[in-house]
């Protein structure tokens, strides 16, 4: 019973800190090459999002100035 309560308390602390132990487990099961590939994919997605945001921002500024 005490162990279960301690586990629940740890889960609550982890949730408050934003720790996803399931995600950590997934990454620990990956090979180093898989982790690098995952990181590269994440970076690529972030760059695409940043570029799309900049493009959207630029086009919306242009449309405001031409109106």
List the helices and strands and how they pair.
Blueprint: H1 2-17, H2 21-29, H3 32-66
Largest sheet: none
The secondary structure category is mainly alpha
What radius of gyration results from the CA coordinates?
Answer: 21 Å
| Helix percentage | over 70%
User: How much beta, percentage-wise?
Assistant: under 5%
Can you write the helix and strand succession as a string?
HHH
Spans of at least 5 consecutive residues with low confidence: none
Helices, by number, come to 3
Average predicted confidence as pLDDT: 87
What's the number of structural domains?
A: 2
Write down how many β-strands occur, each being a DSSP E stretch of 2 or more residues. 0
Annotation keywords:
67 residues; 3 helices; 0% strand; elongated
Description:
With 67 residues, this protein is an all-alpha fold. It has 2 domains: 1-30, no CATH class; 31-67. The protein is built from 3 helices and no strands. It has helices at residues 2-17, 21-29, 32-66.
Short description:
The chain has 67 residues and is mainly alpha-helical. It has helices at residues 2-17, 21-29, 32-66.
């Amino acid at each position: 019973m005490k162990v279960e309560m301690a586990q629940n308390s740890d889960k609550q602390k982890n949730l408050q800190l934003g720790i996803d132990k399931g995600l950590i487990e997934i990454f620990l099961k990956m090979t180093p090459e898989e982790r690098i590939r995952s990181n590269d994919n994440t970076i690529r997605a972030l760059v695409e999002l940043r570029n799309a945001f900049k493009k959207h921002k630029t086009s919306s500024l242009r449309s405001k100035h031409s109106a």
